[in-house]
Design a protein that fits this description.
Blueprint lengths: L8 E5 L5 H9 L4 E5 L2 H9 L5 E8 L3 E2 L3 H7 L3 E9 L3 E4 L10 E5 H5 L2 H7 L2 E5 L2 H11 L4 E5 L1 H7 L2 E4 L9 E8 L12 E9 L5 H11 L4 E8 L7 E8 L5 H12 L1 E11 L2 H7 L1
Parallel strand pairs: 1-2, 1-3, 7-8, 7-9
Antiparallel strand pairs: 3-4, 3-11, 5-11, 6-9, 6-10, 12-14, 12-15, 13-14
EC number: 4.2.1.51
Keywords: Amino-acid biosynthesis, Aromatic amino acid biosynthesis, Kinase, Lyase, Phenylalanine biosynthesis, Transferase
Enzyme class: lyase
Length: 286
Amino acid sequence: MSDLDPENCITFQGVPGAYGHLSCSTVFPEMEAIACDTFSEALKAVREERAKLAMIPIENSLGGRVADIHHLLPESGLYIIGEHFQPVQHQLLGVPGSTLSDIKAVHSHEQALSQCRGLTRDLGIEPIIHADTAGSAKMIAELSDKSQASIASSLAGEIYGLEVLRDRVEDRIGNTTRFVIMSRQRKDPDPRAGNCMTSFVFQVRSQPAALYKALGGFATNGINVTKLESYITDASFAAAQFYIDIEGHPEEAHVARAIEELQFFSAKLKILGVYPLNSYRTEYSA
């Protein structure tokens, strides 16, 4: 990364060809996508000004929330400035010259294999768990064994010179991962420019019905809460922190009133970002 312009770099977790890489290329095709071993390293590179942005998965429509992300984001020192919804379209990839009848085993991430059970059953091939999808594609290319295949993205196939033996092998169409785009600078959009999302974390005070009262302001002010999740923050199991996404901008009067009411019943609150509402949300619900 040292020879690259940090202001033109975006990080992701995984190896080249991962769905995080595909998301970077889709949203920021002009930027250099940098692979990192862990989510922490991807965020750290931005914080230390070795990259401008990070593309971080936060939840999947089938698998739920991505482990550890809700702990990492509040402590990252970064802000959410955008969101991206990446369709997960799995491909069965093999080395050049291989055919479906050659395949005896398929390698991929555990979740990808679970999302493609129909394929392994129909072809009678052995599923073998790998650390990640793109990493399995890289391994298959290095093995150059016609009996081994990978389930990964089309980008992974292009990068590692593999052939698509079967397209769209997932059992259910519509599998989508939501990514958030992280930056050192908070970049609140103009509330008059269009619909916005606000993400934040908070802890309620230790008293009966505190959460019910804290969230009441969103109901009375007509604010749509699109995501609310809790997770434990210490070994006592007494302090639960909540991650929440809402539709609206803090500068809008009804949103400001709801947040003010939330703060009254909260021990602490931290806004993680205000960013434009992605068109995927309205297109999918239409």
